[in-house]
Amino acid sequence: MQIFTRAIMAIALAITMAGVISGNANANERYGKQKVVYHINYNGGENDKLYRGAMRNIQNHINAVGAENMEIKVVLHGNGLGLLASAKKNELLQGQVLELKGQNVNLHVCNNTLKGRKISYQNDLFDVFEEDIVPSGVAELSRLQQMGYTYIKP
Fold first, then answer.
1. Which of 10, 59, 87, 141 satisfies CB 3.0 to 4.6 Å to 126 for a cystine?
2. What is the pLDDT of residue 16?
């Protein structure tokens, strides 16, 4: 009886895995490879709700297409730098930022905003490094679109 139960469980697992693999194959066929730039330049609102929603949108996009099929850039400028400023204290945002970075999502921070607002990326923003800084957020958006990235403003 125990061998029969194990055999049934093995068959059920194989069917489940085939469904998962098939679902991924269907998503890959439907969506293919994608290059996307997300644009964040707004305030996060109460409890950073808009920022957390934007991060969820990006994760949902990855879940649908597969991280291996995507190149994602997130350009933050103006009030959008508030996302990384809030993440210094907001553990939910920290987790979302780190989770996305772990899936090769690149964050691009506007140097014009840093200078104009006297923001120190080392002291005032969460997990930002020199290589994350671009000269101009809006110019970076244009450059990426010229390179074939699809523009999304969550």
1. 87
2. 45
Backbone angles phi, psi at 28, to 5 degrees: -60, -40
**Structure-token pair, residue 66:** 């597969």
Number of H helices and E strands in the chain, helices first, is 7, 5
Helix axes 49-65, 2-31, angle to 10 degrees: 100
Specify the CATH number for the domain of residue 103: 3.40.1260.10
pLDDT of residue 13: 44
Q: How many domains would you assign to the chain?
A: 2
**DSSP letter string, 1-64:** -HHHHHHHHHHHHHHHHHHHHHHHHHHHHHH-SEEEEEEE-S---GGGHHHHHHHHHHHHHHHH
Whole-number Å distance between alpha carbons of 39 and 118:
21
Q: Supply 96's token pair.
A: 């979302």
> H-helix or E-strand containing 37?
strand 34-40
* Domain limits for position 55: 33-152
Phi/psi at 135 (nearest 5 deg)?
-60, -40
In this predicted model, what pLDDT tens digit does every residue of 116-133 receive, in sequence order? 999 999 999 999 999 999
